[in-house]
Amino acid sequence: MLGNLAVGATAMMGQAKAMEVISANISNLNTNGYKASNVQFKSILGSKVANENQTAGMIPIQRQSVGTSGLISNTGNNLDIAVSGRGMLILTGQKNGKTNVYYGRDGSLHTQIAKDGRSELVDKNNKNLQGFMYDEATETYLPTLSSVTFDETKPMPFETSTIASMVGTLPATSKVGTASLDPTDQTAGKHVKMSVSAINPAGQSQILHLNLTHTGHKEWTMTYDGPVGKDGNPTTITQQAKFDSHGDLVSPKKIDLGWGVSTTLHLSQNGNEYIPGRSDINGHKPGYINKVSFDDKGVLYASFNNGHIRPIAKIPVARFINPNGLAAENGNIYSETDTSGSPLVNTIEETNGTTKIVPNSVELSNADLSSSFSNMIKTQQAYSAASKIITTYDAMEQTAREIVR
């Protein structure tokens, strides 16, 4: 009789465990990256009677769905990322005085100030996001994982302009003028003024000018800013520009503007109007980080207020043979187990299209409300039925005691 009561007791305890898991799924419907669980049951056998195994009830087994993705929702937050496909973000954090590695799918990230004053990217548990940091000296990503950090207080140093190009088509039918005339007078196309904004060796913006005057057949006189003289003013250099019968520039192909900016001239002579082209130059002012954001390859970029963009780090994903075997930790993250196997760490490019990073987005919970309510009703009914087992056996035992009397 006591064995029969145990069958009912294990049934009630199993259904109570199922209700616990269902409740957790419902309570985490709005938890980003949450992975729902379900409970399955297996029977257990008691002692043998007349060479037959006696059923002694059942035990619950909780199963995770870590490998099942949730929907992806755009948040508009430039620090949020969602993993689409296989893989998990890699995180590190302290536990019992040790640095442990964790894995998660919740890419709701924010910054906090580290002990060294740098900004570090962390998740909602303040666990550090791991990535391959970009080395500006070698212009490559470092081969070992580390916490993703960047310095918002340190400016990008200015870069002096050293290389430029000037592009334009000069009029071939303009009247011939004299080089001594005012170069700003561009009437009849005989005077052309070209300029480019450069960064001088002091880190300041400076306009470098190239003035051209049509002084002969297929010939223009160029005057431009040269090196700064002893009086502190730039010197003026005069040089002849010659064109061939097709209107292409023969010489000079290059000139040194200002403090030695090597400038390639892409000039031609055609038509009766000056047609400016696009002039380019290197160099930039100092700049501070005003925004950081991800691309779909998992690269974190820093945007500076001088218009430049530089990579900070590349975020990889960890992929497991059996992600459902990971051990759940507080804060909707997981740790490696023998059942899950060791992770394979890949960049997004190395996943061959099976995994993507979705910027400005998060992965929602994969728990389903309708199925949770359906399972709740079934579990409640099973629990009530299991309680009837106990009350029925109790009544049977009472009958047996009365027979003895």
Secondary-structure topology with pairs:
Blueprint: H1 2-27, E1 37-49, E2 52-64, E3 72-74, E4 81-85, E5 89-95, E6 98-104, E7 110-113, E8 119-122, E9 128-135, E10 140-141, E11 146-147, E12 149-150, E13 163-170, E14 191-199, E15 205-216, E16 219-228, E17 234-243, E18 249-251, E19 254-257, E20 261-269, E21 275-276, E22 280-281, E23 289-294, E24 299-304, E25 309-314, E26 317-319, E27 327-329, E28 333-335, E29 344-346, E30 355-359, E31 361-363, H2 369-404
Summarize the structure.
With 405 residues, this protein is α+β, with helices and mostly antiparallel strands. Helix content is 15%, strand content 44%.
Any overview of this molecule?
By secondary structure, the protein is α+β, with helices and mostly antiparallel strands. The chain has helices at 2-27, 369-404; strands at 37-49, 52-64, 72-74, 81-85, 89-95, 98-104, 110-113, 119-122, 128-135, 140-141, 146-147, 149-150, 163-170, 191-199, 205-216, 219-228, 234-243, 249-251, 254-257, 261-269, 275-276, 280-281, 289-294, 299-304, 309-314, 317-319, 327-329, 333-335, 344-346, 355-359, 361-363. The chain is 15% helix and 44% strand. Strands 5, 6, 9, 10, 11, 23, 24 and 25 form an eight-stranded antiparallel sheet that branches. Strands 13, 19, 20, 21 and 22 form a five-stranded mixed sheet that branches. The radius of gyration is 37 Å and the shape is rod-shaped. It folds into three domains: 2-65 and 366-404, no CATH class; 72-156 and 287-363, no CATH class; 163-281, Tick-borne Encephalitis virus Glycoprotein, domain 1, CATH 2.60.98. The protein contains two helices and 31 strands.
